[in-house]
Structures are given as C-alpha cells and as structure tokens.
Records
---
Amino acid sequence: ILNVEQSPQSLHVQEGDSTNFTCSFPSSNFYALHWYRWETAKSPEALFVMTLNGDEKKKGRISATLNTKEGYSYLYIKGSQPEDSATYLCAFPYTGTASKLTFGTGTRLQVTL
Amino acid sequence: GAVVSQHPSWVICKSGTSVKIECRSLDFQATTMFWYRQFPKQSLMLMATSNEGSKATYEQGVEKDKFLINHASLTLSTLTVTSAHPEDSSFYICSARRRQKIEKLFFGSGTQLSVL
C-alpha cells in the first residue's frame, strides 16, 4: 500500500477567501491522481482525475495542478462559498492497477459566512 | 451522471449476527466494484475488489470468510459481515467503475455499522 499524504488536516475559512491544500504521493511509477469531494451524509463525488505532469484542471471555482516528478498535487478553491464545505480526498492507484485506489485522510474544509 | 445506491445507510446489530449491505449501480453497468472501510479519523481502506461473475479479491489482512462479497450481476454487489463483533463496527462504503480504464469511481453513500 502506498502512502498518500494530505495537508492540512482541516481548514476553516470565511466566505470569499481563496484556499488551497496539498496531496503528496509517491513520484515513482505514477499512473493517475484522483481528487474527490465528500460532503457530509452524501457520496464522495469525483472532481478530477489527472494523469499528465504539469496538468491543470478546472471545474468552476475549483482547480487542481499536478507535479508527478516531485509527487504532489494542489487543489485550489477561489472565492470559497459555504457549499464548498466538505472533505476533499485525493487518491492514488495501487501499483500496477488503474482503479484500486489508496486514499489520503482528506482535508476537511469549513467555510463560514 | 452515474449513480450508485447503497443500503442500508446505518445498521445496529447484536454481536454474532450477520449483516448484508447492498450496492447497486442504477444507470450503468459496473464491471468492478470496490468495498472500502473507514474507521474514525482514518482514511478509506480498500477491503476487496469484486468483479461480476467471479470471486472477490481481498486485500491483505481482510478475512474473506468474515466479509463475504457477491457480485452476481453487473449492477449489484453485496457485502455480508458474518458473525459480526464490536470490532467490526465501522463505516463501509462501496464504489464502482464503468468499463473505461482510467476513470473516476462512483461511490455509494456508505453504511455505518454498529455492533453491540
């Protein structure tokens, strides 16, 4: 099992603030990096699946970057809103597989008015 | 979008009983389903991978006789916790993938199991 580290563990921001958090993963044998958003009492929802070094993906106010050589990905949220409050998980496939994922512990984001 | 339905959402049972959790893909065929478990303040841990029509593959340390997985059709996988004990109390969640090779997973909403 590979180590996927996320930081910070939790984050509390005010509405309108921009924020970012980090996912670190093993840089060798890179295959793909997943980001999921998990709201309380709901199903985790995929945000991005990233495969190329230097890739940047965007979905509304949320974007992510990927550095496979140094083994990290950043998730950015611009102008946070209360509905962005959730736990953000990143995941990395087991060696030799495409979809057996090992997850980080997540970053819990709380956005207040 | 693809929807995965998981039932029940929560279950309380007595020690020694068995509990079945269902995971259904509602609008797509899931060739593979994954079962994860999460203990408080820990990450999702993969328990097993289930492929339609074949035996599940269990991760190291997961007892296959305790956690029975059946994937009888392309839309349904079940996890049965047999002879549950308090240490089996945890959050169990399924996920499914479609046929594509590199693709996001679609998750159920999870089942909180409490064994008294």
---
Amino acid sequence: GNSVTQMEGPVTLSEEAFLTINCTYTATGYPSLFWYVQYPGEGLQLLLKATKADDKGSNKGFEATYRKETTSFHLEKGSVQVSDSAVYFCALSPLYSGGGADGLTFGKGTHLIIQP
Amino acid sequence: GAGVSQSPSNKVTEKGKDVELRCDPISGHTALYWYRQSLGQGLEFLIYFQGNSAPDKSGLPSDRFSAERTGGSVSTLTIQRTQQEDSAVYLCASSSDRFTGELFFGEGSRLTVL
C-alpha cells in the first residue's frame, strides 16, 4: 500500500538557519506529492505540491522537488523565521496509482521550532 | 462560510457514551473527508464522501464509527459507545475536485474520552 515516511521531530533551529525536512514515499504508479503545514491552533493548509517527476513546488520561500528515482520529496528553505514554527506533513495522493483508498496518505508530521 | 467549519471544537465525554461531530464544508465542494489525528500517529484516513455517497469506508476503525452526509453538504461523524482510545482530534476536509489532492481543512474537533 501507499505510505509516507518523514523525519521525526521536533526539529529545533535558530532563525535564518537552513531547513531540510526529509520525506520519502512508497506508492504504485505516479502519485502527486504535497506538503501541508499546521500552524499552532489552526487547521492544516496546503503549502506546496508537485504532480510529476522533477517538478518543483514552491511557496513562501519553501521548495520541494519530486524525485522519482529516490522516491523523495524533501522540504527545504534557505532562511527560516520564527513564524515558520509549525507542524509539517508530507503527503501523497494516489490519483494515478491504480487503486487504493481515496484521500491523501500523510506522514506523521514533523514539528519545527524556530528560536529567535 | 468561507472555510470548513467543525463543531464542537472540544468535547469531553465519558466512556460508553455516544458522540456526534459535525462538519460544514466549503460551499460547492463535492468531496468531503474525515481524518483522525492522534499524538505521535499523524493523520489517519477515516472516510471519504463524494456528494452524499461514501465509496470508501475502509478507514473506519470499527463498527462503532459511522458517518453520513446529507444534501451534499453537512456531514456527521458518530462514534457509539466511546472508548478511551477514541480520544483524538477529528479533522474534516473538503475539496472541489477529488483528484487534485488539495484539501481544505477545518480546525478539528478535539475529543477526550474519560
């Protein structure tokens, strides 16, 4: 079945540090890949997405590249801010996977803490 | 409303009681999803609606869980004879297109079973 694995948290960084949150997936076919973010006290919201191999999703200074050869979709940001503190979820959508449950398959989430 | 609305935001109940959680999706969104978020477990898919029908109920953890959607809009998730392991945040999401994967989430209903 489909699965998403992301690095365990919490990840604690200083402001302006470089961020990488690793995400790898297992799926049949060609899923779409997503990063969702959950700020404190809020619902999840879509941060960025990529729908095919080598696509790069980007938003709010965050980037992630769909790497089919390594089945990865790592999230990066060059200079983090305190306001980036949140829980980040990697997810896949089995649109082209030929089957499986509807809905996104999520990783367990990575809690990011940015210290001033 | 402008976003997905869920109620109640917090619910504390005693073991063995029934609870109902409500989701009001974004107007016009035909797809509606329920997820469960437990500490350290990430998001667990429960059920999906396209219109009023639920083609995929595979994620419901037991027959104590049921969900319905009426008028292609509001959905209710019902948990009968609640157990302590049902304690979690129950998230609802809606989407205008089931294939895009772009879901709009509510803030969730936090259920605590004593």
